[in-house]
Amino acid sequence: MPHSPYAVLLDAEPPSAPDATLDLPPGIDVDALAEALDAVFADAPDVDQVAVLVGGQTIGGCSRARLIGAARGFGDSDGAVLPGRPRYQIIQLSCESCDFTMVRIHIDHRSMPLCRNGHGPVRRVSVDPAGA
Ligand SMILES: [Zn+2]
């Protein structure tokens, strides 16, 4: 989707080896996507590339370097990376059988996402809220 409003935040290439999957609700605005990505990279220092899904469809990937570059030219602020605490609480989900990791900003407990390697539903990883 070459004219996606999200393109400013996405790598030119599709994600090659994402460390995590960020699964976002359909219609999320680009500011919210930026905040969610910022929160992911802030919360997970060992994640360098995220595959981005919106409404269950992969729209591309975002690397840490890309987000930093986008943040510099993004919006009409002073160009600083988003200040303070993100609006979104990042929820990490992972598979018990492999290293598949997914990141969400919301969870529908009635339908937990599945491991892409076929191991069934992922489980929530408890994140220490005091570390935020
Ligand atoms: Zn798995």
Question: What's a concise summary of this model?
Answer:
By secondary structure, this protein is of the alpha/beta class. The chain contains two helices and six strands. The protein has one domain.
Description:
- The chain is built from two helices and six strands; from the N terminus they run E-H-E-E-H-E-E-E.
- Strand 4 (91-94) and strand 5 (101-104) form a beta hairpin.
- The longest helix is centred in the N-terminal third of the chain and has 14 residues, at 30-43.
- The protein has one domain (5-127).
- The protein has a six-stranded mixed sheet with strand order 3-2-1-5-4-6.
- It is α/β, with parallel strands linked by helices.
- The protein has helices at residues 30-43, 64-72; strands spanning 20-24, 49-54, 57-63, 91-94, 101-104, 123-125.
- Zinc ion binds next to loops.
- Zinc ion (ZN) is lined by residues 95, 97-98, 100, 115, 117, 119.
How are the elements arranged and paired?
Layout: E1 20-24, H1 30-43, E2 49-54, E3 57-63, H2 64-72, E4 91-94, E5 101-104, E6 123-125
Parallel strand pairs: 1-2, 1-5
Antiparallel strand pairs: 2-3, 4-5, 4-6
Bound molecules: zinc ion.
Which ligands does the model contain, each kind named once?
zinc ion
What spatial order of strands do you see in the largest sheet? 3-2-1-5-4-6
**How many runs of DSSP E, i.e. beta strands?**
6
Overall outline: globular
Proportion of helical residues = 10-25%
Q: Give a short account of the largest sheet.
A: 6 strands, mixed
The unreliable regions are 76-80
Rg from Cα: 14 Å
First-last Cα distance: 34 Å
Summed over residues and divided by their number, the pLDDT gives a mean of 81
Number of helices: 2
What is the percentage of strand-forming residues?
A: 15-25%
Total individual domains: 1
